[in-house]
Amino acid sequence: MRSDPIRADQPLAPSGVGSDLRALRKSRAVTLTDLAAGVGRSVGWLSQVERGLSEPTISDLRRLAAFFKVPLSLFFGHAETPEAERGHIVRRNAGRSLGAPDGGLTETLMSPDLGGAFEIVRSVFDPGATLSAPQTRPTEEAGYIVSGTLDLWIDEVQFTLSEGDSFCFRGEPYRWRNPGDEPCVVIWVIAPPVY
């Protein structure tokens, strides 16, 4: 256990941060040049971070998290994972939080990293939570309702889904609502990764 405080300029790159940064940048179609300008670092340094040759400081990770609008904790998902499990296993309660739970949706990344062809997200929709404006992403998405009820509109066609139901859509506008009195838990698979 650390007894000394962590300084903001102290290198503290968790294992896997470079590959996660590269996957996040590519999934958002952000160039190294644009990212460098957005976080105040050089293209060369960012390239080295992505290849595991340089370590970002806590301040760097904060700027990167702010740029991509993801929580800082996204970059620390590998810290407690045993070496043999990295890239393969995510244990219960070890997923990384994605975004703030505002709007009644809490999301947890259940994929071991962001470098694969898809990502697995555990989404918990609070009772009454609604995404009222349709979203469209250049992805293929599928989900499985673990518990609760979810109204899902795909291209403005409404479906009411319950425990055990599943869905799939590709690049179509979608929105959702939890019409129930209990949280709705969905395992959501997205390809390519968007977080």
Short key terms for the protein model shown above:
195 residues; alpha+beta; four-stranded antiparallel beta sheet; 19% helix; globular
Task: Characterise this structure.
It is a single chain. The protein is of the alpha+beta class and 195 residues long. The chain folds into two domains: 17-76, Orthogonal Bundle (434 Repressor (Amino-terminal Domain)), CATH 1.10.260.40; 90-191, Jelly Rolls (Sandwich), CATH 2.60.120.10. A hairpin with a 6-residue loop joins strand 1 (96-98) and strand 2. The strands form two sheets. The chain has a six-stranded antiparallel sheet, with no helix packed on it. A four-stranded antiparallel sheet has the order 4-9-6-7, with no helix packed on it. The protein contains four helices and ten strands, in the order ααααββββββββββ. The protein is globular, with a radius of gyration of 18 Å. It has helices at residues 17-27, 32-39, 43-50, 58-68, and strands at residues 96-98, 105-109, 119-125, 130-135, 140-147, 149-154, 157-162, 166-170, 174-177, 184-191.
Average pLDDT level: 84
For the secondary structure, the number of strands is: 10
State the shape.
globular
Could you tell me the strand content as a percent range? 25-35%
The level of helicity is 10-25%
Q: What's the CATH H-level homologous superfamily of the largest domain? A: Jelly Rolls
Q: What oligomerization state is this entry in?
A: single chain
Distance between the terminal alpha carbons, to the nearest Å? 30 Å
Assigned CATH architecture of the largest domain: Sandwich
**Radius of gyration over all CA atoms, rounded:** 18 Å
Catalogue the unreliable spans. 1-14
Name the structural class: alpha+beta
Q: What number of structural domains do the residues give?
A: 2
Major sheet: arrangement of strands: 1-2-3-10-5-8
Order of helices and strands: HHHHEEEEEEEEEE
Main CATH class of the largest domain:
Mainly Beta
Largest sheet: 6 strands, antiparallel
CATH topology of the largest domain: the name is: Jelly Rolls
